[in-house]
């Protein structure tokens, strides 16, 4: 079953076309790694998929329901009430954590399920504490973000995204704000989620990680998908010259 479909997505900023007719679909349980040079449109694609930015053209479909539908060359979005329901389909983990500084760790995780999804507070707290245990942070429930290391903050933000029970989890360069030692911790958490068949879309510059964890790798450049396929094809044996040039620069 397709959890997410993006069809013929277009997005411009100040007349500059950042996404040029991009299509991407994600199956339930699949891990998709998106790689490519800076400025290729990877983060914009994620921001459009999670409705932080609005598409100029194209379709955005979650679980077979249209969040945005191309009509006369422009993306027309579903009514606000329907979009609110669709926000529960996904969780997003940012590169710079985006935790609420004035909330405790536990409140950061519980806030959206209680205030947005209107779920039972006791039940949510139980789930939140279990997620903290899973992230190795049981003792940090009452701490505040400033008291945590970058790696711990990123694990809290993963727990916060998982607390929504999303159909798909998006990661935007989840390790780029971390030093190499902490990067390994976060990649381990994501690898464990992959083993549990969590559906994920991961924008990453960690090529080895994409090779080891992704079921499918998408290489983007200049706002288009240049190549996609199994990691062993795209990363180890690319057919496109642009992909080859990008990967050879990284391996120097």
Brief digest:
The protein contains nine helices and eleven strands.
Helix content: 25-40%
Termini gap: 40 Å
Number of helices: 9
- Total count of strands: 11
Strand order, sheet with most strands: 7-8-9-3-10-11
Structural class: alpha/beta
**CATH architecture level-2 label:** 3-Layer(aba) Sandwich
Q: How many domains, as an integer?
A: 1
Mean pLDDT, all residues? 93
Describe it for me?
- By secondary structure, this protein is α/β, with parallel strands linked by helices.
- It has one domain: P-loop containing nucleotide triphosphate hydrolases (Rossmann fold), CATH 3.40.50.
- The chain contains 9 helices and 11 strands.
- It has helices spanning 42-49, 80-86, 105-115, 121-134, 150-162, 180-195, 207-213, 231-234, 241-250, and strands at 2-13, 16-27, 31-35, 57-62, 65-71, 74-77, 90-93, 168-172, 200-203, 216-221, 224-229.
- It has a 6-stranded mixed beta sheet, with helices on both faces. It has a 5-stranded antiparallel beta sheet with strand order 2-1-4-5-6.
- α3 (105-115) packs across α4 (121-134), α3 runs parallel beside α5 (150-162) and α5 (150-162) packs parallel to α6 (180-195).
Give the key terms:
Rossmann fold; 9 helices; alpha/beta; 252 residues; 5-stranded antiparallel β-sheet
How would the blueprint of this fold be written?
Blueprint: E1 2-13, E2 16-27, E3 31-35, H1 42-49, E4 57-62, E5 65-71, E6 74-77, H2 80-86, E7 90-93, H3 105-115, H4 121-134, H5 150-162, E8 168-172, H6 180-195, E9 200-203, H7 207-213, E10 216-221, E11 224-229, H8 231-234, H9 241-250
Parallel strand pairs: 3-9, 3-10, 7-8, 8-9
Antiparallel strand pairs: 1-2, 1-4, 4-5, 5-6, 10-11
Helix pairs in contact: 3-4, 3-5, 5-6
